[in-house]
Design a protein that fits this description.
The complex is a heterodimer of chains A (about 775) and B (about 475). With about 775 residues, chain A is mainly alpha-helical. Chain A has 36 helices and six strands. The termini of chain A are far apart. Classes of the chains: A mainly alpha (about 775), B alpha/beta (about 475). Chains A and B meet through helix 28, helix 31, helix 34, helix 35 and helix 36 of A and helix 10 and helix 11 of B.
């Protein structure tokens, strides 16, 4: 049969035969190690790229001369070679130390650190800087922020009443410490999703579950508590889906996913893992609290018993009646609206404003008294004393319950406090999980049991299918998504965008990775290296790719507008927090103390009025005004404008990637916001005091503080000229000087300080200052 | 005379406004072009320089009253007597044939509107009694009853309406328009966003006024919804006009030098945003100060009434903005997502917005501004003819679900022929059956009124030309005057 004839008459047969021939030939020649047709037979290869197992790719052979510094570079370089592009040269040392310092600790380097790096001619100078930064306690503060973004951390409930959560910070502090200690990411995961279920769980491990306490709470009258509980559970599922699986799992709450292989049923099987978790706060004493508390507690218990003792049996009987009535209302709504309402209120206002679990009161009432803890008994009793008179007001006063309440209040005021923390715990009143038709909270379909989605490896046969099993499954070596997703988000922080641009979506609708091998290599090594985040960060920042100049290359503008090929670094506008922190650091105002409750720096009167009404925004004392922005109190309904203007997310749901906008409102903030102007003045005083003599020397000093480099001649001339003009302006206007420099400083000419305030504010307004190049 | 001396004599506001010779009005592009910076480096002139449209425009400005959440067309604009007959009965199977959409809930029954409809104006356009004020403008309004969209989810639906695609990260309409036409104002942003809420949790966010892949200068500038609309308009204590000018001048010069060194495009946006900020400082207090408005105007917009004050303030601001050359003003009102208690909640949102929106039309008309201002009223989708009962079966709490297959929007002014209804739905209000207008058609029409051809307003990104209307959109000729 001739070639032509066979092709016409039996095309498939022909191709099959020739395919075999080609295949045989290629194996013979050793050209193709794994033929394409074999791959087609492997179902794993048919799957969407991110659902395939992570197999560590071979590192490409060294090439490109001395450019590559580690394996990361070889992957990037291979692609650049293919495209015929040469990488950019390494950035200058000033740029480099500013870049890596901002990226690793979120603060600019000091002039001394810059000079030390420039002068360090020994090999390994850069690695030494990286080591110092990774060991800095500010590393945890910097890296806590993106994690809190995905957790959507806040210090208030959200919704209309937006009650405060004064203990929320305990979780934030846990994150900072975990990052500083380089807690392996698998453990980091397990503790946050299921710390309470670990054997002999410590208080710290329970505090970690605060991750699951970042859902919003609606305490507005009329809200159906079950509806909002269901919303919280759904949010937990959606958040875990986004944060670990890079999947828009939340879409499946109402219907099968339109694009990804996750069904609505699978959503509710994931939901079932979280549906049995209750919000409870625990005693989590800070150092120094436990001793005084323990000293006073026996006395407190004795006096409390004495208050109740004479009538304790009757009181308990009345309280039981009250509880019974509430439970009836819950079981049969619609019979008596007043008791319906009382049951609802118990669920709405329980310990509100303290950041406690909203539904805990109802859960305690549902428990038979014998199963209640001492804390639960006491709290419910105190609630009963406040709101229980409705059951029988005559009996209530006969028993003197109002007086008992005053007595207990007085005792409580005397008892030394133990700090508390927001956690979750498996419920004591097990509830079934249902498939919810169209996601409607009370439109229940069949019962569902906890399970993981079918498109991912099975969860296996854990002892119990609970959150702990789920958390372990998320970080198992077989899970194809977690490590890829986490590594990608780290990459995004160092380059502005991930290897997968859609860091929140690794599904069918998401973008494919620009460098799939590099992503998989990093993911595999990350796991091999014990999920060490610091190893991962070091690997990235020590690469030549990372160290390249960020200067735009006009010849690549059309070919690679988004810099996907990584032929240079990117200039990135700093985050809202880093902008504020940098201004405070440059001015010397920054308080570098670590941890503790959230702070309330001053903000404009109209914001306070708009969002806080009478409750007000009690401005923190001196140190609290200048803490790092990480510590600023996040009120969901009234975001701190300075941060919101620079794209801080709204804490409503998980945010994996912030916007980087550029608006006139940002200019107005940097020019006129009192905080930034105060920073300019402090920097001016610093410059005038620290540098004797010439204008140019002072300019150089200020420029070095703010940008790590010295100004060029033209830049210096511009600044000197502005100084000269500002001095002239102020000499003619003593009234303005008095306002600009309200406090006289010994030995400093107010006109000089005023003019330098202007010069310094210019530098703090430069694009370069709010950008990391 | 130096710039400083001139400034001292004239004061900033006059200085900025007077002619084209003052330093404040010297275009940024001019200053930088002198240094060979912007034009030479980025190949782009001032991002906001007014540009020629593709064809003669009938509208210079757009005020888009974005009613987020999906207002119910069946209780406001599209009377369906058949619903009364089928009330509480299942939807006839003929309407559901061939549909496969998560919106359809098996077992949902038809819900008649509790509202009454009447005819208004010479044209006899029907409105329900929930919008008596807007109805008074029947003869100015073009009612599009055959709207359709692609999605029944809020965020994708909002993205489609505002950005032309349900995907995240594409430029919004206001950004496209600013990019296409530049700005008429050197003192205000070309694209401003105002928000108001009837519920604490909002359905809108910055992704709806993003610049997407266009220059970040084109991003919508969102005024704050509470307190001062713009923070930090005042100079810090002791900073005189001259002091401020020196600061802003020096920042610009240094940023321009940096642009030359790094060729980072973002720096030109930064320079533009500083220039604009400086000018807004002069212009915005005047914009926000309503003392030059008559008592009758304030009353008309409902500024004396707690219920209407928020939206009324936004509407009045919108008029004052277009008077000052703002090209695209978008008022988001959130939200109309009335899944339950529809009748009660619809009343709340109507009362907040009806009178102010109507006042805006009246006011624009009186001032002769309606002729070249296009006003659009509508949300991302409509609501189902069926009821949706979520909390028990208590009568009186019914609501409607999201509905993408047929809903209503309104247009007026700027080249639109008022007093007509375009399009219609079937007897149940389920499907648009006559003169269907897809969201992309609406966008094409809006751009057409502004003198832009939606197929030619493109931007090359990642090797492909993108446009607001993606691969769809036809100008709806019937709408045009």
């Amino acid at each position: 049969m001739s070639l032509t004839r066979s092709l016409v008459e039996d095309p498939y047969g022909f191709l099959r035969r020739t395919g075999v021939i080609l295949l045989t030939a290629s194996i013979f020649l050793g050209v193709v190690s794994r033929p394409a047709s074999a791959a087609d037979a492997d179902p794993a290869e048919q799957r969407h790229w991110s659902y395939r197992p992570i197999v560590r790719p071979e590192v490409p052979p060294a090439a490109g001369g001395a450019w590559a510094r580690n394996a990361v570079d070889l992957f990037v370089h291979r692609r650049l070679v293919r495209e015929g592009i040469v990488p950019s040269p390494v950035a200058g040392r000033e740029t480099l130390i500013r870049r890596v310092t901002l990226d690793l600790i979120g603060l600019p380097p000091t002039p001394r650190e810059v000079m030390a790096f420039i002068k360090d001619k020994r090999p390994g100078a850069y690695q030494r800087v990286v080591d110092r930064l990774l060991a800095s306690p500010h590393y945890g503060e910097r890296w806590a922020r993106p994690w809190l973004d995905v957790a959507h951390y806040a210090d208030s409930d959200g919704y209309l009443t937006d009650q405060l959560r004064p203990v929320a910070w305990r979780f934030r502090h846990w994150v900072v410490e975990a990052l500083n200690g380089d807690m392996p990411f698998d453990r980091f995961t397990i503790e946050q999703l299921a710390g309470d279920l670990l054997p002999e769980a410590t208080i710290q491990q329970k505090i970690a579950t605060g991750f699951l306490r970042q859902t919003l709470s609606n305490r507005e009258g009329g809200a159906d508590v079950e509806e909002f509980r269901v919303m919280q559970v759904k949010d937990r599922v959606a958040t875990v889906g986004t944060v670990w699986l890079g999947s828009t799992v939340g879409c499946s709450a109402c219907h099968d996913h339109k694009f990804d292989p996750i069904t609505q049923r699978e959503f509710y099987e994931l939901y079932a893992f979280f549906n049995s978790a209750d919000e409870v706060n625990i005693d989590a004493p800070l150092p120094g609290e436990l001793g005084p508390y323990r000293d006073k507690r026996p006395e407190y218990d004795r006096r409390r018993r004495e208050l109740i003792a004479p009538r304790s049996v009757e009181i308990e009987k009345l309280q039981r009646r009250w509880e019974q009535r509430l439970l009836e209302a819950n079981a049969n709504p619609g019979q008596d609206y007043r008791w319906d309402r009382r049951w609802e209120i118990l669920g709405l206002i329980w310990r509100q404003g303290l950041g406690e679990g909203q539904l805990e009161g109802q859960e305690i009432v549902k428990l038979v008294p014998a199963r209640r803890s001492q804390w639960q008994r006491e709290q419910l009793f105190e609630y009963f004393l406040r709101f229980g008179a409705d059951i029988d007001s005559k009996r209530f006063s006969e028993l003197g319950l109002s007086q008992i309440k005053s007595g207990i209040d007085a005792l409580n005021r005397e008892l030394p406090r133990l700090s508390r923390a927001a956690t979750v715990r498996e419920t004591q009143n097990p509830r079934k999980s249902f498939f919810l038709n169209r996601g409607v909270y009370n439109d229940r379909g069949p019962v569902v049991r906890p399970d993981t989605p079918g498109f991912l490896p099975p969860i296996g046969k854990p002892l119990r299918r609970n959150r702990l099993a789920l958390a372990r499954w998320l970080v198992s070596r077989d899970n194809p998504l977690t490590a890829r997703v986490i590594v990608n988000r780290a990459w995004q922080e160092f380059f502005g965008r991930g290897l997968v641009m859609t860091s929140e979506d690794f599904g069918i609708q998401g973008e494919r990775p620009s460098h799939p091998d590099l992503l998989d290599w990093l993911a595999a090594r990350f796991m091999d290296r014990g999920w060490s985040t610091k190893w991962l960060h070091r690997q990235i920042v020590c690469s030549a790719v990372y160290r390249q100049s960020s200067h735009v290359r006009p010849e690549l503008r059309d070919r690679d507008p988004d810099n996907r090929l990584l032929a240079r670094q990117s200039s990135l506008r700093l985050t809202a927090e880093a902008i504020r922190d940098s201004a405070l650091a440059a001015s010397g105002l920054l308080s570098r103390s670590l941890g503790g409750p959230s702070v309330r720096p001053p903000q404009s009167a109209s914001t306070v009025m708009g969002g806080f009404g009478k409750s007000g925004w009690k401005v923190s004392e001196r140190d609290g005004r200048y803490r790092r922005a990480l510590y600023i109190f996040i009120k969901r309904a009234t975001p701190f404008p300075q941060l919101a203007t620079f794209d801080a997310p709204n804490a409503r749901d998980s945010c994996t990637h912030r916007e980087r906008s550029n608006t006139p409102l940002q200019a107005l903030t940097l020019l006129n916001d009192p905080l930034f102007f105060e920073a300019s003045r402090a920097l001016a005083q610093r410059a005038v005091r620290e540098i004797d003599g010439g204008t140019d020397k002072r300019i150089d000093h200020v420029f070095r503080i703010c940008t790590a480099r010295l100004p060029g001649d033209l830049e210096r001339r511009e600044l000197a000229d502005s100084h000269r003009r500002l001095v002239a302006v102020l000499r003619r206007d003593p009234g303005a000087v008095a306002k600009l420099v309200p406090e006289k400083i010994e030995g400093l000419d107010p006109v000089e300080v005023g003019a330098w305030t202007g010069v310094c504010s210019v530098v703090l307004n430069l694009h370069e200052f709010i950008t990391r190049d | 005379m130096t710039a400083e001396e001139l400034l001292a004599i004239q004061g900033r506001r006059r200085f900025l406004r007077d002619g084209t010779c003052g330093i404040g009005t010297v275009a940024l592009s001019g200053l930088l072009a002198e240094d060979g910076l912007v034009a030479g480096v980025t190949g782009e002139s001032d991002t906001f320089l007014p540009r020629e449209p593709h064809h003669a425009a009938t509208a210079r400005n757009v005020i888009f009253l974005n009613m987020s959440g999906g207002p119910s067309q069946l209780d406001l604009f599209d009377p369906k007597p058949r619903l009364q007959q089928l009330h509480r009965k299942p939807v006839p199977a003929s309407f559901l044939a061939g549909l496969n959409d998560p919106v359809i809930k098996a077992g949902a029954t038809v819900m008649a509107t509790p509202r009454t409809f009447s005819r208004y104006g010479e044209c006899g356009m029907e409105f329900s009694d929930r919008l008596p004020h807007l109805a008074g403008h029947a003869d100015d309004l073009c009612m599009l009853r055959g709207m359709v969209t692609d999605t029944a989810n809020h965020h994708p639906g909002q993205l489609l309406l505002n950005c032309g695609t349900p995907m995240f990260g594409h430029p919004s309409m206001g950004a496209w328009v600013s990019y296409g036409l530049g700005s008429e104002s050197r003192n205000m942003p070309a694209f401003v966003v105002l928000t108001s809420y009837s519920k604490p949790a909002s359905l809108v966010g910055p992704s709806l006024w993003t610049n997407g892949f266009l220059s970040s200068s084109y991003r919508g500038v969102a005024f704050r919804s509470k307190g001062e609309p713009i923070l930090h308009l005042e100079n810090p204590a002791g900073v005189s006009e001259m002091f401020q000018r020196v600061r802003v001048d020096t920042v610009r010069r240094l940023n321009a030098l940096r642009l030359k060194q790094t060729r980072d495009h973002e720096i030109s946006s930064r320079i533009a945003s500083y220039e604009l900020a400086y000018r807004m400082q002069a212009e915005a207090p005047d914009l926000l100060d309503f003392s030059d408005e008559s008592a009758a105007t304030l009353e008309m917009y409902g500024l004396n009434d707690e219920t209407t004050r928020w939206y009324g303030t936004n509407c009045l601001l919108a008029r004052r903005m277009i008077e000052r050359g703002v090209r695209f003003v978008q008022l988001f009102h959130s939200d109309w997502d009335h899944h339950l208690d529809l009748d009660k909640l619809l009343k709340v949102d109507c009362r907040m917005t009806d009178r102010p929106a109507a006042a805006l039309l009246t006011d624009l008309k009186q001032r002769g501004l309606l002729d070249d201002t296009l006003v659009v009223w509508g949300g991302e989708f409509g609501r189902t003819p069926m009821n949706e009962v979520r909390r028990g079966n208590s009568p009186g709490h019914q609501g409607r679900d999201h509905h993408p297959f047929g809903f209503t929007m309104l247009m007026a002014g700027g080249g639109v022929r008022g007093g007509q209804v375009v399009g219609g739905t079937d007897e149940l209000g389920y499907h648009a059956v006559e003169d269907r207008v897809h969201i992309h058609d609406l966008q094409a029409t809006i751009l057409h009124c502004l003198g832009l051809d939606h197929t030619r307003l493109t931007y090359r990104h990642q090797g492909r030309d993108f446009r607001l209307t993606d691969v769809g959109g036809n100008v709806v000729e019937k709408v045009l005057a």
